[in-house]
Every structure is written in structure tokens, then in C-alpha cells.
Amino acid sequence: MDAKDISLTTVSASLYAVLSVVLAPISFGPVQLRIADCLLPLAALFGWPIIAGVTVGCLVGNIVGGVIVFGMVNPFDITFGPAANFIATSLIFVLRRRRLTSCVLGSFTIGIIVGGYLWIFIPPPGIFGFALPAWLAMMISITVSSLIAIAAIGYLLVSILRRPNILMMFKSRGLKVLE
Q1: Does residue 33 contact residue 26 with C-beta atoms inside 8 Å?
Q2: DSSP assignment, residue 127?
Q3: Nearest alpha-carbon partner for 145 in 124, 129, 161, 160
Q4: Whole-angstrom Cα distance, residue 57 to residue 61?
Q5: CA 105, CA 168: separation in Å to the nearest integer?
Q6: DSSP secondary structure string, 23-42?
Q7: What SS3 class is residue 43?
Q8: For helices 99-118 and 75-94, what crossing angle results, to 10°?
Q9: How far apart are CA 169 and CA 165, in angstroms?
Q10: How far is CA 110 from CA 15, 67, 81, 171, 178, in A?
Q11: H/E element, 104
């Protein structure tokens, strides 16, 4: 890992944490749209610096955001949230040649892991009036929001950044871009 990789890791971690905290009202809770998750698909473009960055950024964002929104730090959220980001971005990285598929699978990974523990601490949302088990309602809620952030916004972001003129700009500045 060279200085540019470390810088990219730092920038992605900072951006993830800031987006999570600044948008805290919609980044946390039973119905959330964590816009910061749109950074996860960048692992298909930049690899390990993004994987490390969004993992650390999630840790910092969950600590600071948890204190701001809930007045406390949730040990599950600071353990399993970053783990979910790590697994999802690693999956996106490995399946990077199938970008949309990898983004959808990353979204389901986040939904299952985060929804799998969040229902214990936060009452789940009602899903169209159906009487669903709490864990299932939370998994559905988090998966839907992840599909919006990762498979829609994130996929669009990566598609734009993969344009030849933009890739040339990254490469001319010495960034390692995955083809």
C-alpha cells in the first residue's frame, strides 16, 4: 500500500463517516437511507483502499452517529455494521466485472447483517400492514434502503466514474484503477 492508497482510504473513511453523521436523521433507525453506502460500489473501481475506508468510516460514523441520535454507542452497531460493510465491499470487489449483480448482492448482505441485529434495539417498521416477525421486517427495511443507496445510487456513481475520460484523470494522478 503506497501513499496514494492510504490517502484514498483516509478520504473514503472520512467521507463515509461525515455523510453518515451529517445525514444522521435518515442514516440511523428502523427506516434508514444511508447515503454513505453509495460509496461501497467504489470497491469495484479502486479495490482495497475503498474496502478499508468504508469499513473504518462505518465504525466512526456508527460511534458518532449513535451518540448523536440515540445518546449511546451500540456495541452491536460498531461491531457488525463495519463487518457488514467489509463483507459487502469485498463481495463487490470480487464480483466487480458484474457490477449491478455485485451491488445487489452487497445490498442484501447489508440488509441481512444489519437487519439481523438492529431489530433487537430499535422497533422495526410496519411493512404495508403485514404482521411480520420483527427481524424480518427490519431485514426488509434495511435491504430496501441498501438497494437504493448501493444498487441504484452507488451503481450510477461507479458507472459515471468508469467513463474513459474520468478513468484517464484518475490514472494521470497515479491512482490504481481496476479495469
Answers
A1: yes
A2: B
A3: 124
A4: 6
A5: 29
A6: THHHHSSSS---GGGGGGGG
A7: helix
A8: 160
A9: 6
A10: 19, 21, 8, 31, 23
A11: helix 99-118
Q: What amino acid occupies position 168? A: M
Task: Tell me how far apart the alpha carbons of residues 50 and 35 are, in angstroms, rounded to a whole number.
Answer: 16
Residue 5 is which amino acid? D
Q: Which residues pair with 130 in a beta bridge?
A: 127
- Three cell numbers written together for 110: 447489508
Q: Which three cell numbers stand for residue 145?
A: 434502503
pLDDT digits (tens, 9 = 90+) for 69-82: 888 888 999 999 99
Q: How far is CA 15 from the centre of its chain?
A: 11
Question: Grid cell 490517502 — which residue?
Answer: 7
- Rounded to the nearest angstrom, the gap between the alpha carbon of residue 8 and the centroid of all alpha carbons in its chain is 16
Domains of the chain with bracketed CATH: 3-172 (1.10.1760)
Span between the terminal Cα atoms of the chain, in Å: 19
Set of cell numbers at residue 149: 443507496
Read off the pTM: 0.93
Could you read off the pLDDT of 83-115 as tens digits, one per residue? 999 999 999 999 999 999 999 999 999 999 999
- Sequence length of the chain is 179
The 3-state DSSP class for residue 130 equals: strand
- Phi, psi (deg, nearest 5) at residue 32: -135, 150
Radius of gyration (C-alpha) of the chain in whole angstroms: 16
